[in-house]
Design a protein that fits this description.
Nucleotide Exchange Factor Grpe, Chain A, domain 2; 3-stranded antiparallel β-sheet; 6 strands; about 20% strand
């Protein structure tokens, strides 16, 4: 047949084949997308489970005995650094203390070492001493650190020992001090 004869014969059944092929292609793509979504859902579930397990390990302090020993060793290294006789020894002990602290933090420990002026937190600090301050803004703030503390997420193992400032109004002269200062006749 020539082209004019083909046109005269009527529509060619090519279009239905294309519709069928297009339909099959759409079904195949839907199947592919279903597999991709299922794979992504499984990945998200796995990541969520890993995050939950990590959080649970951090909460329970899986390495608590090791963290406690590392904290004691850190205290020894800091003490050695502060009493070193030469700058070279001091630098060496400071380097060792830094490495121990990194290990401690890597195992889930948190060194609690509040600086002067920070608010006193009774959950992670212990007042070793109290000093008077005339400024109400400095009331219940840390004056100085006596000894650092140790905590793990959600739990204080050893509170930091600090000197706490407490605001007190200047004492007015009381009758007992007035009589003590009178000269005897």
């Amino acid at each position: 047949m020539t082209e004019p004869d083909a046109l005269a014969a009527g529509p060619v059944p090519v279009a239905p084949r294309r519709e069928g092929a297009a339909h099959d292609e759409i079904l195949e793509r839907i199947d592919d997308l279903t597999r991709v979504v299922a794979r992504q859902a499984a990945t998200i579930e796995r990541l969520a489970d890993d995050a939950k397990a990590k959080a649970q390990r951090e909460r329970h302090g899986a390495d608590l005995p090791l963290v406690t020993e590392l904290f004691a060793l850190l205290g020894d290294a800091v003490a050695c650094a502060s009493t070193a006789e030469s700058a070279r020894e001091r630098e060496a002990f400071d380097a060792v203390a830094g490495r121990i602290e990194r290990l401690l933090v890597g195992r889930g420990g948190i060194v609690v070492a509040p600086g002067a002026g920070e608010a006193f937190d009774s959950l992670s600090m212990e007042a070793a001493d109290v000093v008077r301050t005339d400024s109400p803004d400095e009331d219940r703030t840390v004056d100085s650190l006596v000894q650092p503390g140790l905590s793990i997420p959600g739990r204080s193992i050893r509170p930091a020992r600090v000197v706490v400032r407490q605001h007190r109004k200047p004492a007015e002269s009381s009758p007992s001090t007035d009589t003590a200062q009178r000269p005897r006749s």
